[in-house]
Design a protein that fits this description.
The complex is a heterodimer of chains A (234) and B (294).
Chain A (H helix, E strand, L loop, with lengths): L1 E10 L2 E11 L4 E5 L6 H8 L7 E6 L2 E2 L5 H6 L2 E4 L11 H8 L6 H14 L1 H5 L10 H13 L5 E5 L7 H16 L3 E6 L2 H7 L2 E6 L2 E7 H6 L1 H7 L3
Parallel strand pairs in A: 3-8, 3-9, 6-7, 7-8
Antiparallel strand pairs in A: 1-2, 1-4, 4-5, 9-10
Chain B lengths: L1 H31 L6 H17 L5 H24 L7 H23 L4 E2 L8 E4 L4 E4 H23 L1 H11 L1 H6 L4 H27 L1 E2 L5 H14 L4 H21 L5 H15 L14
Antiparallel strand pairs in B: 1-4, 2-3
Classes of the chains: A alpha/beta (234), B mainly alpha (294).
Amino acid sequence: MLKIENLDVYYGAIHALKGISLELNEGEIVTLIGANGAGKTTTLQTISGLIRPKNGSITFQGQELTQRPAQEIVKMGISQVPEGRRVFANLTVLENLEMGAYLRKDKEGIKATLEKVYARFPRLRERKKQLAGTLSGGEQQMLAMGRALMSQPTLLLLDEPSMGLAPILVQEIFSIIQEINKAGTTILLVEQNAHMALSIAHRAYILETGRIVASGDAKELAESEQVKKAYLGG
Amino acid sequence: METFIAQLLNGLSLGSIYALIALGYTMVYGIIQLINFAHGEVLMIGAYAGYFAVTILKLNFFAALLFAMVVSALFGMIIERIAYKPLRRSTRLAVLITAIGVSLFLQNGGLQVFGTDYISFPQAIPRVTYKFLDGNVTITSHQILILLVTIAMMLILQYIVQKTKIGKAMRAVSYDKDAALLMGIDVDSVISVTFALGSALAAVAGVLLGMYYQTIHPLMGVMPGLKAFVAAVLGGIGIIPGAMAGGFLLGIIEALVSGYWSTTFRDVVVFGLLILILIVKPVGLLGKDTREKV
């Protein structure tokens, strides 16, 4: 469904992604794990069209993405929950969700999706009139995910959904990610919390300073000595 | 007491014009963190557009106002497209200097095209003076019109910003451009619309100023532009209700200083106020210290 080939991304003189290649099949949860600064967020931002790569290609359902503006990429069905949630703190919860459906014109359809999002995150319904900036960290994460779902993506990019959340909330968020996947959305999950990410993913890629150093079945990777040592604390 | 009421009325009409201009400053600042110093010139262009609409196109006041708004809105969008958009990724200083350049260019361009003379602005609405309190307090039909038009514009703007899709997108973009891009919002066109709205309000201010002073001039936008900038900072730059409050407050302060003290000290007080607010509460009266939540 998504295919990245030999992607090179630079920030000025810094070579952030050094020819990475990865692939997602429809219906999968694939996780991209690695330490801070490995290039995980850069990868997602390049897919979403916020950063232009120097070389390489990204194809989604056979179509090249790298030269398209961000809004076209959203329209094609790729939605991102950015790192740090990035909800619009000055907008209400409902307005944030409406922004998620910005490119959609079907009023009835938007309403139906909104109901689905509320059903998945009942807290958001309770707080729909509240400014997003007044929500707790966990609620903001739910809002960011609900907002991304409003465009009815077929591919959802999640950037560190566990960041800064209490362990119990992390559990909750991860089980919601699995539910979203079971409902038919393919997921690319970027995480520092390798243990959690590997536990729900089908496959995984490990990124180290801009290079993919290992990839494979998530369960197998979680068992490998190399990964255990570097990412799972022994 | 009569002086006070009279000056208060003066202050309200002048203040509403400042508020209209300040709104443009604050909206543009809110969305791209730029003090658009060419805003006063957009006002001037609106005033001339209104003038030609009444004298040559023979439009009535409201049609002329609408015409001026459209002309200024287009102008504002063109300025943004040509002068500011190519600098989107540059430093804020580079854009600020460009804005000053655009301002000077339009001032001198205006002097070239429209001439250096003051021209009298047609009284598209008859000027009637109403007296009350034994004739000690007067209010003109123009003052009432200025106030009513301003209030109407503010209500329309509030509606657009709070309730419409583009208004919500404007607020989203002003908070976080990258996140807005991820929603599929076309950030460039939202910025364009913001310039159009702010410029249309400047045109209203220009036409109203023409009516208020009964003359227009290519440099007419300079001083009101600067004062409205002070008003926007006073209320809290980037905050729409702040610009409204700041505009009215500044107009009233100016009128009271002129009435009770001296008109020569008027500008001293206004710009003194700018310095004071920058020292005491740089975020402005309605501004909040923003804290990021992680």
